[in-house]
Amino acid sequence: MTKIESLLKDERIFYPPQEGKDLAYIKSRYQYDKIYDYSLKDPDGFWTERAKELITWFRYWDRTCYWDFNKAEIRFFEGGKLNASYNCLDRHLLNPHVKNKAAIIWQGEHDRDLRVYTYQMLHDEVCRFANILKSLGVKKGDRVVIYMPTMPEVIAAMLACARIGAIHVVVYGGLSAEALKSRILDAGAKILITADGTYSGGRRINLLNNAETAIAQCECIEKYIVINRFGEEITLSDKRGLLFDELIKNKEFEKYCPCEEMDAEDILFILYTSGSTGKPKGIYHTTGGYLVYAAHTTQWVFDLRPEDIIWRPGAVGWITFHTYVVYSPLALGATVFIYDGLPDYPNPGRWWELVDRFKVTILYLTPTNIRAFMKEREDWPAKYDLSTLRILGTVGEPINPEVWIWYHKNVGKGRIPVVDTWWQTETGGHLISPLPYTIPQKPGSVTLPLPGIEPVIFRDDGTSADINESGHLCIKGAWPGIARGLWGDSEKFKEIYFSRFPGYYFTGDQARVDEDGYFWIMGRLDDVISVSGYLIRTSELESVFVAHSAVAEAAVVGMPHEIKGEVIYAYIVLKDGFQPSEELKKNLIQHITKEIGPLVIPEVIQFVNDLPKTRSGKIMRRILRKVAAGVYDDLGDKSTLANPDVVEKIIQGRKEIF
Ligand code: WTA
């Protein structure tokens, strides 16, 4: 691989606050270093301690860690018995301080749509749901697809599955009938749980139509259960349909439902990645290792304590929802806030108003979320009291330093830590992230690996990269939260993750390590453009654009060029109050020349209102690359886009330029 130079030369450093440090789980760099060394020297000892500390087991395991990456075989806590639903609910009922506290606070789009479940109430709801599933013949190992908006019933349904040993497959409610169908069929699901619909920006969104269209072509579905969100009569079009409101009239279902004893290596869930490339993959995680790893990272990275209220806005069909909204905060007995609505409806202050009203303490956003706020004028957070916040998180893509600093300053008021957490659906939880009170931060860097994680950076030929040389990010050895396989395709699991560099887990991300040992994630390999023989990172160029006062968001791709091979095509979203003009284009080009140099001057700048994104906020560069190249049909699978309408507008804009 030709060496890829880093364009970013950001030297700003932010020190962790003193306030809050004394109470933190991990208080210093010294303590982190000691734990890190121990975790690598004695993984068995380290994970045994963490697993016993964090999780209640019905039976302890016979062997703590086992892996053979050449065979793609990974097992943790083998022979151990536990139940995830028990850990998230039942064990808290024995504690009078937790039993009657809020487990879930749910706010719908309308203010009057507000519900609170205490741990006791959630437990009862989960038992009821589990009894219903059992009555429909659901058994251990059966797959149950959950296709719903963000509402408490999603969590209840997930924990009900976990309780009886069924495998849940949560599919984001914004996906099309076609995408839902392919996931149901791939998983071979027996039951579908859905809702009539939800609200979005004042409009009603119908889910049931999609669900019924999908299952019309899915013979494997024996029954589907419909939850009533609109409070109106529901007409079912298929005889397999059941109304939740009817089912719960049966008092029998209110009985206590015992927890199935699950082996640590029994599958807990399958999650299809709505990745920005290619066909969705059904990644599965198992019970023991996943739960330990979820609780472990939450406790140390978010410094989560029982009195915290954590909020990660966004789609239920994402791994962040599974790990940091459902399993770990509930396993640790904290309170989860969930919101079903848009960030800017009825006004751009909505999310800050919710932080203020519900006294959120830990807020976990994506860079895309944050950039959207920067676009909508910076003064909104200041209108609300955000003083209960104590940790801010970010996830999903490299954060532009300018965005990090805005978040730290405007949301965190410069007084609280920001944790930039790098991980993947496959990793189950965070792998590289600052522990909030231990380390000075360089905006844009994910800092150091967590205990138990040993990342390495390889060149193409498998030799180790030098300091500041970017290469393939791989992980040596396994950790409890790593995925155990791809549903129905063990060969592919081995091929994708364990064959590129034998003996290592291959992340597919590019990264570099700087002179202080800090990791910088640079995105996927295909996010690189080659201009006159120089390889340029799109993410870095985008960061430079975003540092311009008029730019809210930028997506940079390569456009084929007869002479130069490839040139830079930049899609730019302006902040409110700025108008597209030739003048502004010149100004942006000057800005790029000044910050980086003339080499990377974009050939084309197209102003757009919005960028095509997946639900988790990842920009679909695959589509933007095609449009830049003038290819308007054959754009590939658009089913995972959160905002499919923007594609047509972008195509129109491109046609106007050429
Ligand atoms: C990217 C999300 C930079 C990365 C939990 C990874 C990040 C992919 C970060 C996984 C971060 C995630 N900085 N890049 N803090 N976090 N990524 O499976 O490319 O939806 O491989 O899981 O997102 O996305 P996934």
UniProtKB/TrEMBL annotation:
SUPFAM superfamilies: Acetyl-CoA synthetase-like (SSF56801). The lineage of its organism: Bacteria, Pseudomonadati, Nitrospirota, Thermodesulfovibrionia, Thermodesulfovibrionales. InterPro entries: Ac_CoA_lig (IPR011904), ACAS_N (IPR032387), AMP-bd_C (IPR025110), AMP-bd_C_sf (IPR045851), AMP-binding_CS (IPR020845), AMP-dep_synth/lig_dom (IPR000873), ANL_N_sf (IPR042099). Pfam families: ACAS_N (PF16177), AMP-binding (PF00501), AMP-binding_C (PF13193). Its EC number is 6.2.1.1. One of its GO terms (molecular function) is AMP binding. GO terms for cellular component: cytosol. GO terms for biological process: acetyl-CoA biosynthetic process from acetate. Residues 100-487 form the AMP-dependent synthetase/ligase domain. This is Acetate--CoA ligase. Residues 540-618 form the AMP-binding enzyme C-terminal domain. The keyword Cell cycle does not apply. Belongs to the ATP-dependent AMP-binding enzyme family. Residues 32-88 form the Acetyl-coenzyme A synthetase N-terminal domain. The keyword ATP-binding applies. Keywords: Acetylation, ATP-binding, Ligase, Nucleotide-binding.
